[in-house]
Amino acid sequence: MGADYSAQINRELPIVNDASLNNYINQIGNQLASRGQRGISYRFYIVNSNVVNAFAVPGGYVYVNRGLIERFSNASELAGVLAHEISHVELRHSVEQMERMQQANIGVGVLGVLLGRNAQGTAGQVAGAAVNVGGSLYFAGHSRAAENESDANAVPLMIAAGYNPNGLTTMFRKLLAEEQSRPAGVAQWFSTHPLTQERINSTQATIDRVPAAQKRSLTTDTNAFQSFKTRMRNYSPRPTD
Asked: Rounded distance, CA 200 to CA 149, Å?
């Protein structure tokens, strides 16, 4: 089912088609996912959209928008977002959300959510016809409880994969600061990922409880990440339509 939904999403969204960029994000993602408990084969995609967002489809399909990648300062922040989305899959949050929305008969076009479009427009109607059954079932946003559970699950994933878990909270702080100073720039993220200072504090407390010995020598940044970000910056312009 997840594979079918992912195929629909990939037909409708502007997926980045660059072997180097895709290899890198899949390398980092699979380093993290291999520490999961469900034995799922994950695939990671970059969406060529300046909207700040990321999401996961049941079955292990994870998408990160270019607009979010451009806000990462280091490899640990990318790893933090990927670990968080992996955790939604590991904890079956996306399946639970899908079931709730099916019961409520709720549907929105995937392009309207991920690209910030008005779902009533022509493009939104076309997208809705193509992916409403699949894409619309995931993107109304997770509950605060689900977000907190994914944060807590992401921390040990990052540590096991060798990444500094503080990247998760530094990215959250950056997004929260932007929401307070320029809310339109991150509106889509906040509509699908409830984020508060309390949530950041809770995640940091989880990190602080990890023995210092376990956090020594963890990776915060790499040359490979900076090369990835430079290549992403120089990739084909984001589509305007």
From this structure: 12
Around Cβ 106, how many Cβ atoms within 10 Å? Answer: 11
CA dist., res. 224 & res. 39, Å (int): 27
pLDDT tens sequence across 170-180:
999 998 898 88
On whether the CB atoms of residues 63 and 122 are closer than 8 A, the answer is: no
Cβ atoms of 135 and 11 within 8 Å: the answer is no
The radius of gyration computed from the CA coordinates of the chain, to the nearest angstrom, equals: 17
The pLDDT score that the predictor gives to residue 158 is 97
Give pLDDT tens digits for 178-207: 888 887 777 766 666 767 888 899 999 999
Low-confidence ranges of the chain (pLDDT < 70): 93-143, 188-192, 194, 239-241
Q: Tokens in use for 129? A: 């016809």
Query: Crossing angle of helices 144-161/197-208, nearest 10°?
Result: 30
Q: Specify the 3-state DSSP secondary structure of 64.
A: strand
Of 18, 145, 154, the C-alpha closest to 84 is 154
Please report the pLDDT score of residue 97 as a whole number.
Answer: 63
Between 223-233 and 75-90, two packed helices, what is the crossing angle to 10 degrees? Answer: 90
The one-letter amino acid at 240: T
Distance CA 75, CA 15 (A): 21
How far apart, in whole angstroms, are the C-alpha atoms of residue 136 and residue 133?
A: 6
Are 162 and 219 spatial neighbours (Cβ–Cβ below 8 Å)? yes
